[in-house]
């Protein structure tokens, strides 16, 4: 999924990359099996849909960094180390604009 997102960014297919961003987060929330997290993500997605009207144009470099941040988060989760995953999520969320 991350490789496909990166390819979309390189190709300038921004909407496709954003769609995969949603799929990435939805997949992580489903894997947690936390109903509360899934419901929170759905609410955030609704807010994001409204916010899309206000999003500024991002450069390819900004989008490439966005993809790299996803890879870092995924690697931390895949490590199986909850502290590493938690730290990566905290860093990821604090970087979002």
Task: Walk me through what this model shows.
This protein is mainly α. It contains five helices and no strands. It has helices at residues 2-10, 14-32, 35-51, 60-78, 82-95. The longest helix has 19 residues, at 14-32.
Task: Jot down its keywords.
single chain; 97 residues; mainly alpha
The main β sheet shows up as: none
Query: Mean pLDDT, nearest integer?
Result: 78
Please give the share of residues in helix.
Answer: over 70%
> Uncertain regions: pLDDT < 50 for 5+ in a row?
none
Order of helices and strands: HHHHH
Secondary-structure-derived class = mainly alpha
Let me know the number of strands.
0
Secondary structure layout:
Layout: H1 2-10, H2 14-32, H3 35-51, H4 60-78, H5 82-95
Helix pairs in contact: 1-2, 1-4, 2-3, 4-5
């Amino acid at each position: 999924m991350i490789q496909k997102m990166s390819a979309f960014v390189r190709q300038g297919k921004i909407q496709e990359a954003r769609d995969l961003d949603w799929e990435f987060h939805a997949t992580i929330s489903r894997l947690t099996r936390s109903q509360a997290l899934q419901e929170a993500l759905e609410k955030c997605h609704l807010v994001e849909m409204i916010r899309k009207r206000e999003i500024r144009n991002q450069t390819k470099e900004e989008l490439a960094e966005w993809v790299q941040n996803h890879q870092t988060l995924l690697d931390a989760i895949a490590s199986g180390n909850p502290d590493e995953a938690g730290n990566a999520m905290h860093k990821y969320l604090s970087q979002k604009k």
